[in-house]
Amino acid sequence: MIDTSAFHDLSYGLYIVNATDPSGRKVGCIANTFQQVASKPAKASVALNKDNVTTRAILESKTYGITVLDEKATMELIGTFGFKNSDDVEKYSAVSHEMWSDGIPYVTEASCAAFEVAVTDIVDVGTHLMFIGEVREAKVLSSQPPMTYSYYHSVLRGKTPPKAVSYVDEQASSPEETVKGLKEVVSQTQQATCEGNGTSQGQRFGWRCSLCGYIIEDEAELPDDFTCPICGVGKEFFERIALDC
Ligand code: FE
After folding, report:
1. Which of 49, 89, 93, 147 is buried most, with the most CB atoms less than 10 Å from its CB?
2. Dihedral sign from CA coordinates of 179, 50, 52, 15
């Protein structure tokens, strides 16, 4: 028997994985799986979903950067790298960043450290590839505490993207099925919540994105063409919630 709630007791940090594809385009994604795995020489690993654009870039370049997010990181920054696709948006265009000497980027805002890793081994672990490598560069960027995955969930109210290693869903077997299931759940929740609560005197209502957790306060209705500013999904992913309760 696998009690999926046991996975919630694992602790992680929150990182931006940085890479550059063969055309020179800067790409990146969020991961919680970066860790040091050996010393002398220092080696590290990160596991990334096989479908990620960043994974494809690292398979080509055999080099990746890691930006360690600190507690100043906003949902907007995390959403840009964690819930959007590098094929659709230029993720670094509005984000402060610098480059390692060989052209791999790292983010300099809301970040406390950065690493560059030269890949030595790639292990296929199923949904994900684990990139193990030698740490080539490392620097401290701020004295802020690093963000933990627990902080992201409890303070920022962030959710786990379907492509993350730690995503646990008992009913869906792929990100696409997960998204389809989320739409159905939200549809049912919207009906139940709206019909059940009405608009009682003094009660505030808002909308919460079921994919990333972003909350919009005090909006009676969302426009039909509304998209989440954090993860980009449409109005149908938002569930109506009561605020202050
Ligand atoms: Fe969202």
Report:
1. 147
2. positive
